[in-house]
């Protein structure tokens, strides 16, 4: 009899060896991967697969969560520019925790998510003046070498995790009683004039005041 229409069935383990080799070489753009759990498993039964969410999808998830609100509202964040297709620049807010020198203070931070986020940690800088063991007093930069979450950044961490951990750091023994820079009094005329000047500058308006 002829062999027309017949097919060859590849034995199970040969098929799995082919799949193992492909998994080890990498698949496509690297967002999907898999491999055996135990190299000594002769039956090749147990495997683990990983799907890596692309950067912008991940940031969209974080944006949605930030807009819905986080926990008790003492930590929040959002994008600076809704038209920024790269979703790089963000603003975070932390309300100082009770029973510390930070109680009642509102701290604003800038977060920058580069092209390698979340593989690499975002840059974090306090815009509000603060005295903390992990923050550069002059620049407000959170020093990665002094802040474990940044030093040991994991892909699973989020901006929410980062802000929450900074809030916890405010409650740590070395920071909870640390003397802080004076707060700006928002009710003073000087502050009001500075605020008006900033708004005018941002709008590109030139005004002449007769005093």
Q: What percent of residues are in strands?
A: 15-25%
Number of helical segments? 5
Major β-sheet annotation? 4 strands, antiparallel
Helix content: 25-40%
Protein name: UBC core domain-containing protein
Organism: Ilex paraguariensis
Subunit structure: Heterodimer with UBC35 or UBC36.
How does the SSE layout of this entry go?
Layout: H1 12-25, E1 32-36, E2 47-51, H2 55-68, E3 75-79, E4 89-95, E5 106-112, E6 123-126, H3 148-151, H4 159-170, H5 189-203
Structure description:
The protein contains five helices and six strands; from the N terminus they run H-E-E-H-E-E-E-E-H-H-H. With 211 residues, the protein is of the alpha+beta class. The strands form two sheets. The chain has a four-stranded antiparallel β-sheet with strand order 3-4-5-6. The protein has a two-stranded antiparallel sheet with strand order 1-2. InterPro entries: UBC, UBQ-conjugating_enzyme/RWD. Residues 54-209 form the UBC core domain.
Give a brief description:
Helices cover 28% and strands 16% of the residues. It has helices at 12-25, 55-68, 148-151, 159-170, 189-203; strands at residues 32-36, 47-51, 75-79, 89-95, 106-112, 123-126.
């Amino acid at each position: 009899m002829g062999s027309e229409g017949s097919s060859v069935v590849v034995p199970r383990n040969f098929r799995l060896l082919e799949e193992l080799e492909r998994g080890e070489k990498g698949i496509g753009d690297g967002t999907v991967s898999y491999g055996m759990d135990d190299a000594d498993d002769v039956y090749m039964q147990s495997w683990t697969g990983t799907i890596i969410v692309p950067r912008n999808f991940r940031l969209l998830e974080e944006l949605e969560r930030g807009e819905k609100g986080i926990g008790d509202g003492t930590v929040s964040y959002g994008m600076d520019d809704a038209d920024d297709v790269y979703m790089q620049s963000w603003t975070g807010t932390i309300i100082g925790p009770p029973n510390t020198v930070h109680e009642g203070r509102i701290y604003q931070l800038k977060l920058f998510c580069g092209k390698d986020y979340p593989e690499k940690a975002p840059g974090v800088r306090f815009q509000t003046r603060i005295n903390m063991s992990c923050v550069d007093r002059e620049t407000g930069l959170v020093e990665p070498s002094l802040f474990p979450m940044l030093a040991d950044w994991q892909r699973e961490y989020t901006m929410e995790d980062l802000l929450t951990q900074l809030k916890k750091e405010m409650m740590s023994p070395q920071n909870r009683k640390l003397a802080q820079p004076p707060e700006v009094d928002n009710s003073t005329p000087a502050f009001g004039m500075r605020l008006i000047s900033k708004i005018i500058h941002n709008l590109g308006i030139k005004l002449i005041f007769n005093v």
